[in-house]
From TrEMBL:
Residues 263-272 have a biased composition (Acidic residues). Residues 259-280 are annotated as: Disordered. It comes from Paenibacillus peoriae. InterPro entries: Leu-rich_rpt, LRR_dom_sf, STM4015-like. This is STM4015 family protein. It comes from the Bacteria.
């Protein structure tokens, strides 16, 4: 059973809060049957953070015994731009729900995952316009023995990404998640650098899917991937939303590999500027 909680602008102006919405949901008999709990706009997400309601959800955790998926911040741009979504330290939720299998987060402003430990979590997805290097460090230091899918929107410097390739290399060269089969290092302004590093990285040997989509990938990064023997062992490679030439796209289509090269973009004609799909 999936439930999404939203406090729209009108309700927020009339005094409704996400904390109250959670309390009201917990009081209903069907709360015991909820498997997927999605938290959308909590009313003024651009000026307040989940720290106002997370303690309530943690306190009432026993009213939600079947939760397996949590999504904090599921809102569209007309509700709140992704770069405006305030977050906080979300690790208390992981401790409160030990049976959790999937954790999705949208927004990276003041996001923290410290400590990041969970015995059963299989999927971690962070959607944002810029992921801070300190959060990448927290993920690298995580204890997630059952993690199968890691999907990170890396974004751009203007909206929070303050790292470089060295902050990403540990996920490729010394991956800390032994059961990982899906790795998404996507929506990046340094997508070519990531692609070149990933082409023959040790982690490729354990993956089924490599997702380098939604970034600024050009022929430079694509060439390294296409030349890699390791990449041929993947079940699927996602390169959608890219800046590859039509000639390079045709080479991929003729490669015999399962690869998504849809959504070709064109660089700015004046300065060859390329933009990831999701930033602001």
């Amino acid at each position: 059973m999936e439930v999404k909680l939203v406090v729209d602008y009108e309700a927020y102006e009339n005094g409704q809060t996400m904390a109250k919405s959670i309390e009201e949901l917990a009081a209903k008999p069907e709360s015991a049957q909820i498997t997927d709990l999605i938290i959308g706009d909590w009313g003024g997400a651009y000026e307040s953070s989940p720290e106002d309601f997370i303690p309530v959800l943690v306190k009432l955790k026993d009213q939600f015994p079947k939760i397996r998926k949590l999504f904090i911040g599921d809102m569209e741009y007309d509700e709140c731009e992704v770069s405006w979504i305030n977050q906080t330290n979300l690790s208390p939720l992981l401790e409160a729900f030990p049976a959790l299998e999937s954790f999705h987060i949208k927004g990276s402003q003041d996001l923290s995952l410290e400590p990041l430990r969970h015995s059963h979590l299989q999927e971690l997805v962070i959607i944002c316009g810029g992921l801070p290097a300190r959060v990448l460090q927290q993920i690298r230091n995580a204890e997630l023995p059952e993690l199968r899918k890691l999907e990170l929107y890396l974004g751009v410097e203007d909206y929070g990404f303050d790292g470089n390739l060295n902050d990403i290399l540990p996920f490729l060269d010394s991956n800390p998640f032994p059961k990982l089969t899906y790795l998404g290092l996507k929506d990046s302004e340094i997508q070519d650098e990531i692609a070149i590093a990933a082409a023959n990285a040790p982690v490729i040997g354990q993956l089924e899917v490599l997702d380098l989509s939604q970034g600024t990938l050009s022929d430079k990064g694509a060439e390294a991937l296409l030349a890699s023997e390791s990449i041929k062992g993947l079940k699927h490679l996602d390169l959608s939303y890219h800046y590859m030439s039509s000639e390079m796209m045709q080479r991929w289509k003729s490669s015999g590999l399962s690869v998504n090269v849809e959504d070709q973009q064109e660089a700015d004609e004046e300065d060859d500027w390329r933009y990831p799909s999701l930033t602001e």
